[in-house]
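Dock tetrahydrodeoxyuridine; give full complex structure.
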Amino acid sequence: MKNIEISAKIQIFHESELNESQKNVVEAAKKATFTSYAPYSNFHVGAAVLLENGVIVTGSNQENAAYPSGICAERTTLFYANSQYPDQPVRKLAIAAQCNGNFTDEVISPCGACRQVILESEYRAKAPIEILLVAGSEIWVFNGIEGLLPLGFNYNSLHQ
Ligand code: THU
């Protein structure tokens, strides 16, 4: 019998400690929460990605009266970025949320489906995507999706 332990490194910064490009992508994610369409959950999520060419693409959750037809902010953003800029690797992804008119103090951790989509973007980017999760004035930073989705199923899993 063997044991394998999985651990994740999370760096927690105060927003004032972020570098310029981190600040820009975090601000863009916060701003994107205002474009959310969330009349059912009232939970307004914004996401922003920084591409290799310096462009920041944003998106938000888009809900639907037929609940499962809605989609999260992260997937809205990544699918749009990959559609508009198929040759531009994603380098950073920031996620923020508002509830009852306030930015959340708790970290917004992407759902399982979004983690899988982030993994695919990372595979395309051929390098870890820096993921920044906004929690009030703190920002949780992951250097790659591995910390949020260990043992992920990706292209290489299909081609062994
Ligand atoms: N949601 C996101 O957009 N991203 C997340 O990481 C978590 C959840 C959305 C989906 C739904 O519109 C609302 O938040 C409540 O689950």
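Observed: The first strand starts at residue 11 and ends at 14.
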